[in-house]
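Sanity check. The docking grid for iron/sulfur cluster depends on where the pocket ends up, so I'm generating a full predicted complex first rather than guessing from homology. Inputs follow.
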Amino acid sequence: MSARIPRLAPGVRFRHDATRDAWVLLAPERLLLPDEIACAVLHEIDGVRDEAVIVDRLAEHYDAPRALIAGDVATLIDGLIADGVLRA
Amino acid sequence: MSSPAPPLALIAELTHRCPLACPYCSNPLELASASTELDTATWLRLIDEAAALGVLHLHLTGGEPMARRDLNDIIAHAHARGLYINLITAGVTLDAGRLALLREAGLDHIQLSFQDAEAEGGDHIGGLRGGHARKLAAARLIADSDIALTLNFVVHRANLERLEQMIALAEQLGAQRMEIAHTQYHGWAMRNRAALLPTAAQLDAANATVTQARARLAARLRIDYVVPDYFAEYPKACMGGWARNTLLVDPTGRAMPCHAAHGIPGMDWPRLRETSLGAAWRSAPFERFRGTGWMPEPCRSCERREIDWGGCRCQALALTGHAERTDPVCVKSPDHAMVAALAAAAGNDASATVPVAWQYRSAKPDPTTAR
Ligand code: SF4
Ligand code: SF4
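Predicted complex below; grid placement will be based on this.
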């Protein structure tokens, strides 16, 4: 599971919206407003890092237990894949 | 008056020119000629203004936007401003070379319109022989690229029988998304309403087909389904509410909140050759039906007033002659009886399989039926 390499699905963009001062996910006919945790994970997704690396980096950055972060990241990535925003 | 929240989407109707002639086209009966279209520099300025205002999605449509020779320049400019770019096309002029250029310019998503699941019906409805085959070829090219693909189907009496085949086609062509929209009765579709309005049995079958397909396909193929107004209990929030998040610019540079609003009398639409997009967004015609302050009863005191925003102004106008009335689709509307009668007449109609002649959109509307 943690060897998967998540990337944005075709036609999905993650960018900052200066007008509303928020990070947004833009997809065909959809605008999603990811929360802070989702944004933290999305910022790590570059189509190169696998899930284990992403978890390591976040665990270090937030100085949090790796197991806890791993669970959150997996749930989030699963959700975004089911929603068609990510692929792995 | 506090200033309105900034718009999220800009619909750019780049041209009314189109190789097809769909009898439900949402373009006005009086089509703008090429010589009256905005030039490239103006479109680029409007894109700058849109991005600065807070627009995130840019929809390039028409007519056929591919008929504009400066399409790639417009896309490249919008991409540089960070806009998410969606091209709504009939696809009959799309080949591998053009697709590569569109991708290079920064196009994110293509909505490819289909008129039917098969060539005979599709070419008949679009009025272009060979059109369906060219669309299939275009869809395969897009699916192989990294541009997201949506297939759009406008459904009505003459093609609803093949709804399952349409879904199968979208699946087989590898589209990420599909839009199935029952015809909205404005402009050309209003003229052809008798030939387009589905029967009650067709509608029930269609609803069931979509429900099953959604359950089966889930995220593999997202299906957005627009139910036909005349058979609904409450109206839709047209455009998510008048001038709440979308701004449309027609080929000649008039700004409006939706593609059918040009028909509303007494509106002095902002002209973007002379004014800015921001000024248009705050202008009197945009304020006219924004929010709830304009509402008559029964909307004014209704608990759904901020859900559907009183429905569609253009539909109220088309059916009652008054844009400011409650959308007659609503069961609470004092005008609802006429919609119920239309739906019932279609529902009882056993002639659904008999072909009805329709009027294709054309540069010169038939003067005997022009309103
Ligand atoms: S609805 Fe048909 S005729 Fe109208 S612009 Fe679209 S493809 Fe062209
Ligand atoms: S009365 Fe007006 S606000 Fe209430 S449901 Fe009908 S159209 Fe919507």
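Relevant for the grid: Residues B 234-235, 298-299, 302, 304-305, 308, 310-311, 326-327, 330, 332 surround iron/sulfur cluster (ligand 2) (CB under 6 Å).
Also worth noting: Residues 350-355, 365-371 of chain B have pLDDT under 50 and may be disordered.
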